[in-house]
Amino acid sequence: MTRNDKHRVLSDRLGIPVEAGEWSWIDKIPEPPADVLQAAGNPPLRPARLGPLALIGTALGKVLWVVFLPVILILIPLSKAEEAIKRALDSKEEKESRRAKKDAEKRRDAMIAEQGLDKVFDGDWNGGAGQFLLRWYTHSTHPQRLLLATPDGIALAAPPQRVSTGREKHMQIVARIPAAEASLVDPFSGEFETRILLIRFRDGSWLRVDTEELRSELHMHVLRNSRTTG
Description:
Elements: H1 3-14, E1 20-25, H2 34-39, H3 52-88, H4 92-114, H5 128-134, H6 136-139, E2 144-150, E3 153-158, H7 167-170, E4 172-178, E5 182-185, E6 196-201, E7 206-211, H8 217-229
Antiparallel strand pairs: 1-2, 1-7, 2-3, 3-4, 5-6, 6-7
């Protein structure tokens, strides 16, 4: 399926024009001050718990993990040894490329810490991002959102209630943010390959969203738009 076909399917499914989209999630929401929480109507700050069948599936998965753990513990050292041998046999260019990648990762991590992007939002509960974050699980109790760029702003789709499977089948638009209120931003302007995108509100506040894919289609759409408008 081409990108345009995917957008057409999403548009037909959700009833809105879609320019790009990617499944995403947010980090754990910190506990807001009591007065802020009360003023917002004491909304939920966590996704809903899994149902009984999903819990049984999770338990079975853990059992299988324990069964195969000894095999995994044997394979990990072998894999590390193989990787070490490959590194030793790398050409000069490959070693320089590996070193450059590590340096880039260090710069990325330093920028994340410097800009406070290791947090879920900028910290101002009264800002646009903080107020939107308070309503995140009121919109949907599912832990993930299909984050969408549309011609008139940002949309988020998800199953209204948490599901263990079939998120695409159950999803619907659960929130929309007009372009006049917020935009999607790659905080690194494409310098690093990451999952991080920001929903940046016009008051300067921001909400960090992580995509399932590294440098996803949505990242590329955001970068194209920033170059066009920049």
